[in-house]
Amino acid sequence: MTRVDPTALAAIHAQAFATPWGEAEFADLLTQAGVFAVVEPDGFILIRVVLDEAEILTLAVRPDARRAGLGGRLTGQGAVEAARAGASRLFLEVAEDNVAARALYDRAGFRPIGRRKAYYAAPEGGRTDALVLGLDLAAIPRAATLP
Q: pTM score > 0.70 for this model?
């Protein structure tokens, strides 16, 4: 696999999130077993595979590159790579009020399986729930990509 630059991931993440992860956090994650990234110039997805389960740790797309299909491509390729690594299910948490992300994951076939109450700090000071979503990877051909 091509070496992933934690500085580049942190730079994209900083543009995509109000509370971004730093270079050191990405560097640490990328040294952990089962963690991989699918990277394009304007975005990336970071996934961890443990045994037969995988989790999307983060998906980031530069704001000026959004709504052009990049998030869907990254999610699809990440799912395929997770399946190749032996995962049969892919999970993630998304803020309940993140309508755009929820629509992206719905299009990719993720379904709600749980809720984490007051999981995320809201920018205005409150807390918002996280929805736990899951995707069955068993039906994804190892050579495929999702929409």
A: yes
